[in-house]
């Protein structure tokens, strides 16, 4: 096998490692593919098979040892951004129609919501600011 054949084979290996990277989304395959590309470069420069394999192994192991822990650390730090009804809990609303234990309406996040007082004995008049404790279906429970 001459030098041209060797670098072509290393590129074939890199592409073959890139396929499971795309299919499984496992970054380790990408790191191995980069190692194969470096080995292809070594073959293209005329280095022997021993240097090519060493380049592949050293680059692949170095990437897995260095990049993988960094990527794992970053992927585990997802900031919790509440969305949907979870984002409405704890917000303030303005009473637009008297709210008591049986119902009423509030303006919450720019929209009119049906509302109910969490404490059935309590009532809130128009214009009062209330805090949303929970969302029950399409009804905001307020205090």
Structure classification: alpha+beta
The level of helicity is 40-55%
SS strand fraction: 15-25%
Q: Give the helices and strands as they follow along the chain.
A: HHHEEEEE
Which parts are unreliable, with pLDDT below 50 for 5 consecutive residues or more? none
Rg (C-alpha, Å): 30 Å
Q: List the domain count as a whole number.
A: 2
Mean pLDDT comes to: 91
Between the first and last Cα atoms, what is the distance in angstroms? 79 Å
How large is the count of helical segments? 3
Please list the strands of the largest sheet in the order they lie side by side: 1-2-3-5-4
Largest sheet, strands/sense/barrel: 5 strands, mixed, barrel
- Report the principal-axis shape: rod-shaped
In total, the number of strands is 5
Description of the structure:
This protein is 47% helix and 24% strand. The chain is an alpha+beta fold and 143 residues long. It folds into two domains: 3-75, no CATH class; 84-142, OB fold (Dihydrolipoamide Acetyltransferase, E2P). Strand 2 and strand 3 (111-117) form a beta hairpin. The longest helix has 27 residues, at 49-75. It is rod-shaped and about 85 Å long. The model has no long low-confidence stretch (mean pLDDT 91). The chain crosses the membrane at residues 7-26, 38-67. Its main location: membrane. Residues 86-142 form the NfeD-like C-terminal domain.
Describe how the helices and strands are arranged.
Elements: H1 3-24, H2 27-44, H3 49-75, E1 92-100, E2 103-108, E3 111-117, E4 129-136, E5 139-142
Parallel strand pairs: 3-5
Antiparallel strand pairs: 1-2, 1-4, 2-3, 4-5
Helix pairs in contact: 1-2, 2-3
Domain NfeD-like C-terminal: 86-142
Keywords: Membrane, Transmembrane, Transmembrane helix
Membrane topology: Multi-pass membrane protein
